[in-house]
Amino acid sequence: MNISAFQHDLLTWYHENKRELPWREDQDPYKIWVSEIMLQQTKVDTVIPYFERFIEKFPTPEALAEAEEQDVLKAWEGLGYYSRARNLQNAVREVVSSYGGKVPDNEKELGDLKGIGPYTKGAILSIAYNQPVPAIDGNVMRVFSRLLMIDEDISLQRTKKLVDEKLRNIISTEDPASFNQAIMELGALVCTPRSPGCLLCPVQAHCEAFSHGREKELPIKAKAKKQREVAYAVLLIRNKENEYLIEKRDEKGLLANLWQFPMVPLAANNLNQVEEWIYKHYGLHVQLNKKHGKLKHVFTHIIWNLDVYEAVTDETMEKKDSVIFAGREKLEERPFPVSHQKMMKYIRE
């Protein structure tokens, strides 16, 4: 590869075609950090309104560090992968307490912060501080597996290490911020997972896979394990005050610290034990009424099949912080996972 010609062709295309994105308006390391965490596992178009609302609510590291976790989760509500938000806030608190609110500009200190992996570290150092450090995510692995015609599984650590070594020789030392963003942009707009737009590619002349007619064979990636499916009956339990029973999930694990309606595991889709299960766990006698609908929620490793039911109770419950009855306004204030947000429509109706 002619590195200087590659850099020229890539950067010329980027400056002429880059998307106007709110985190590109300046080189504020905090904003870049927030955007990169949001963009993990989430599409750009989805992230934009979340990013704008989040920065409006928490405009500085100090504002995020001082915020209540429930407010942060509420601002993140709908983006999923909520551990990202919790890790971000914890790391920002460390930045405020240990570095006076200035995001570190060296690899060691930045990499030691919770939730900052090699990719996020590279993105912040290159985009905010203009340091020639690679930022390697799935997009970048795909682009360089084609450019360099790498026949190794891109999910393997040794392949990522290989790409990192290659990239450190290829990255622009004059404008690493634009270089890394250009590679990300190329992967998002042209060198896409399926049907790459090779005829429109600004670096087609430098691509080994294209010259050998192998662009659709690459990258090589092992198939993900099949997700496990589990069934639940979700109960919208209403009391005499027109309030609904909700509970806070555990502090650790899937959807930690979010609120949800009671979820009853369904063994072989057997509804007979639901009311008994509710009494055992909440000390409430309930009457199961009509079925509102069915929802499916897909995680990376598991699929929830959710049957949503209306239920009523005449009883009160011993007061707990993590299990409460809440009216509609209180429900709107708390952070819920997407699947349970969708159930709100049955309450509003």
Short description:
The chain is 44% helix and 14% strand.
- Principal-axis shape equals elongated
Structural class estimated from helices and strands: alpha+beta
**CATH top-level class of the largest domain:** Mainly Alpha
Number of helices: 15
CATH fold naming of the largest domain: Endonuclease III, domain 1
Q: Strand tally, please?
A: 7
Distance between the termini: 62 Å
Strand order of the largest sheet: 4-1-6-5
Instruction: Give the biggest beta sheet.
Output: 4 strands, mixed
Which consecutive residue ranges, at least 5 long each, have pLDDT under 50? none
- Secondary-structure element sequence? HHHHHHHHHHHHEEEEHEEEHH
State the CATH superfamily name of the largest domain.
Hypothetical protein, domain 2
Label this structure with key terms.
single chain; 349 residues; alpha+beta; Endonuclease III, domain 1; Nucleoside Triphosphate Pyrophosphohydrolase; 2 domains; 4-stranded mixed β-sheet; 3-stranded antiparallel β-sheet; 15 helices; 7 strands; 14% strand; elongated
Descriptive account of the structure:
With 349 residues, the protein is α+β, with helices and mostly antiparallel strands. The chain folds into two domains: 3-211, Endonuclease III, domain 1, CATH 1.10.340.30; 228-348, Nucleoside Triphosphate Pyrophosphohydrolase (Alpha-Beta Complex). Helices cover 44% and strands 14% of the residues. It has helices spanning 3-17, 29-39, 44-57, 61-66, 69-76, 83-99, 107-111, 118-128, 138-147, 157-170, 176-189, 208-211, 274-282, 328-333, 338-348; strands at residues 228-238, 244-248, 259-260, 263-265, 287-298, 302-312, 323-326. The strands form two sheets. The chain has a four-stranded mixed beta sheet with strand order 4-1-6-5, with helices on both faces. It has a three-stranded antiparallel beta sheet with strand order 3-2-7. A hairpin with a 3-residue loop joins β5 and β6 (302-312). The radius of gyration is 24 Å and the shape is elongated. The mean pLDDT is 94.
